[in-house]
Design brief:
Two copies of one chain form a homodimer.
Chain A: H1 18-32, H2 40-47, H3 51-63, E1 67-70, E2 76-79, H4 88-96, H5 120-123, H6 125-143, H7 146-156, H8 160-169
Antiparallel strand pairs in A: 1-2
Chain A binds a DNA duplex (39 and 39 nucleotides) through residues 4, 10-12, 14, 16-18, 37, 39-41, 50, 52-53, 55-56, 58-59, 62, 69-77.
GO cellular component, one term (chains A, B): cytosol
InterPro entries (chains A, B): TR_Rrf2-type_CS (IPR030489), Tscrpt_reg_Rrf2 (IPR000944), WH-like_DNA-bd_sf (IPR036388), WH_DNA-bd_sf (IPR036390)
Pfam families (chains A, B): Rrf2
DNA sequence: GCCTTGCTACTCGGATACTTTCTGTCCGAGTCAATGTGG
DNA sequence: CCACATTGACTCGGACAGAAAGTATCCGAGTAGCAAGGC
């Protein structure tokens, strides 16, 4: 009796959803921009996101030099580079930080035949194998720019640029 | 005044350190095994890990069919497959769960021109791009088996099998 | 002497606390623009 | 009419709570072996 059903794994190792917000916001900035800055509030209203929290993510993009921020009336955010110079990797690093998903804790340090002079982050074979996968991931992210994304979106939905511009221009 | 120094990004999107523990423990099981099971306590003592928590990770490996568990005296864990049939991907999925790192929240659902009939996890261009990177990561993890890891370790440190076996055999 | 039976010690398994990270909110510093005033 | 100081509202920026996940621990269910007792 009382059979136990395994409900499936819980959600592990997920990146912040701020990455998704940041990517879409950058695209919207590219479509909206005609020399004017867009406030975090407007960008958040686009998807019903909490404005203050999106603002936090945009700050991270600003620190990374992806967007530029202006305070005061008529202030807001605008792209600091061309879309073709912004890779997915740039955005992910800006939001999630530069560290690899797999963190080698160097547990071999505590093992029976440990050598204190060795850095197991580079020497440990397990760590090397995991790093290989991380590098493949990063390579793929770095190979795609936001310009590529925009081009694909516009080819599928040609109305998107105008719709977005209008929506952001509206008070 | 009171200049603020940015301390660098905090550590985001890190996978559980249980992955590292699980990988090393599987290798140790392969070296120790001579038909006998090894307890979680012994495996934990190898690196000074909390035994009960390592046990938790080993349970996850057991659910995934990577190791088999036996209760009672002379019980413990032993490999359920050959090392060549265990990929890094298998271990990561067992510990971290099957979900991708990037979770498309389908924020386009809340966008201005949303189509409720569309599943944006597959339709959203941003999601597709992120998935491409995830797939590259998974492909790399699936391409490496624990047998590969063992072979590399043994070629670099030929003493490891015997050292490990002796250490695990010791009371 | 051998079989049966009960017991004890041992191990996994999942339920339970504690810590860190992520998510969300708030208020202050700075800024630009409009407005009113004086020349 | 034009220049300038003042005011005011608006926006980002970082500091401050709440929620969720990761980490660590504990105790119970089950099992295998051992020991004692009976045949």
């Amino acid at each position: 009796m009382s059979r136990v059903f395994w409900m499936g794994s819980v959600q592990h190792m997920q990146m912040s959803e701020g990455v998704e917000w940041a990517l879409h916001s950058c695209l919207n900035l590219a479509w909206a921009e005609s020399g004017t800055a867009v406030t975090a509030t407007k960008l958040a209203a686009f998807y019903g996101l909490p404005a203050a929290y999106l603002n936090k993510q945009l700050q991270a993009l600003a620190r990374a030099g992806i967007v530029a921020s202006t305070s005061g009336p008529r202030g807001g955010f605008r792209l600091a580079k061309a879309l073709k110079d912004i890779t997915l990797m740039d955005v992910v690093v800006a939001i999630e930080g530069p560290d690899a998903a797999f963190r080698c804790q160097q547990i071999l340090r505590s093992g029976p035949d440990a050598d204190p002079t060795v850095d197991y982050r580079t020497a440990c074979v397990v760590s090397q194998a995991m790093s290989r996968a991380d590098l493949a991931w990063r390579r793929e992210l770095a190979a795609q720019t936001l310009a590529d994304i925009r081009a694909t979106v516009e080819s599928r939905s040609p109305d998107t640029p105008e719709l977005t511009r209008n929506r952001l221009a509206a008070k």
